[in-house]
Amino acid sequence: MAENQQAAAGSDNQNQPQFALQRIYVKDLSFESPNSPLVFQEQWKPQVNLDLNTSHNKLSDNQYEVVLSLTVTAKIGEKTAYLVEIQQAGVFLVHGIEGPQLGQMLGAYCPTILFPYAREAIDGIVGKGSFPALMLAPVNFDAIYAQALKRKQEEGGDEASKEEQQTH
C-alpha cells in the first residue's frame, strides 16, 4: 500500500508546474565613451536614459532563453558621456506552465531575475570607464508586461504572449 501511495505521489510531482534557472550569462556587452577625456572636465550632472527590451525563444520543449537588453545613455548637455548596451540572458526550464501564465513567466518573472545581473555589469563597466557609480533603480517588469499586454489588446491582438516584447 505504501508503494502505491509513493507511486501516486511520484505521478503527481510529474504533473506539477516546474520552473528552474539553468544558466545566466552575458550575451553581448558594449561600452562607448565618445567624448572622453573632454567629458571629464564637465560638471557631472548627467541626463541618464534607460531603454529596455525583453525577448525569448524556445530552445526545446521545456527550455527557454530569455534575453533582457538594456541601453543606458548618459549625456551632459548634448555630449554623450557614455553609452552602455548589454544583453543579459538566461536559460530557464519551464514545465507545466502554459498560455497567459507562460507569457507572464517569460515576459516579467524571468526578466526580474536577470535585471540585478545586468545592473551589476553596467555599474562595473561604467566604473571601469572612470565614471561615477551608476545604480539603476529597480524595474517593475510585471507592470511593464501588463502595459504591453493591454496595449496589444487595444490594438486588436488576441495573442497573450509575443516572441519579442519592447518596452521603453
From TrEMBL:
Could you confirm whether the keyword Glycoprotein appears in this record?
A: no
- Main subcellular localisation: cytoplasm
Query: InterPro entries from the xrefs?
Result: SecB (IPR003708), SecB-like_sf (IPR035958)
Q: Where in the cell is it found?
A: Cytoplasm
**PANTHER family, alphabetized:** PROTEIN-EXPORT PROTEIN SECB, PTHR36918
Family under the similarity heading: Belongs to the SecB family.
| Protein name stated in the entry | Protein-export protein SecB
Which species expresses this protein natively?
Answer: Marinobacter salinisoli
